[in-house]
Task: structure prediction
Amino acid sequence: MFAALVVGCSSVPQTPLPNTDVYVADIDIAAGSVKNVRNITQRLGYDNQPSFSADDKSILFVSDRSGSTDVYRYNLATSATLQITDTEESEFSPTPMNDGKSFSAVRVGKSRAEGEEYTESQQLWRYDFSGRSIAPILGIRRVGYHCWIDEGLLALFIVGNDEKGLPHRLIAADLASRQTIDLASNIGRSIKRAPDGRLSFVDKSDSTSWMISTIAQGDDKPTPLIAAPKGSEDFCWMPDGTLLALEGNTIVQRKAGSQRSFTRLITLSDLTGTLARITASADGTKIAFVVVSNP
Result:
């Protein structure tokens, strides 16, 4: 089931939105270096949830500049930013699709609502790069995050309900049959494909020690991989199997193999804020992440 995950994940925050900026940097895992760190948004307000295009030439992200979030595209070669969507609804977590002509995003149909009305309006939609909303990809609601496993299979984070004691759930959804399979519960927001094809996520079942765990087709249950940095639920994989995670203003790494804990890759002490939402380009030469301003 999880042999061909090709694109990234998503999440939807509730208001009020924090002051955040999207950064990009060059990375060389073999040399252990992160260089040319630059802020690609450079403004007050909410800019978040970056994902690299399939050709690694641009970065999609969302920005709140009118009271609702829209999708923007940053060209890495020209440093130009183009607004893609302009809607009353809020879009979150734009993720390029395999056809090269469209992207998926979580759409909040009632972005000015609160609580359960807001959450129930969250669906996964398909858009083209002109910003036209094409159609819902699935009828499933309460979608907070998503990953494409292949063209016909999705991993979805389903938002829970604290008042009813319902935890967040991770499910797989087949587009052809419309069938879903429960994979895990009490999960964090990052859902990623490891280079070996396993689906990985943060297991928050133990509130004192979150674990990055993996699951593959045929598994009865997830397998714990490594303890996540304290309080952190953002991570990404590099093509060589290195796992990157965030701890305050530090990027930590776990090299491929049997390493049991993260080690420091780089501390970005000149950035004022906390790092979040890390993602890597498909060719492994760049990373993008978000800096959340300290209150």
About this structure: Residues 123 and 141 are 5 Å apart (CA to CA). The mean pLDDT is 91. Helices lie at 115-120.
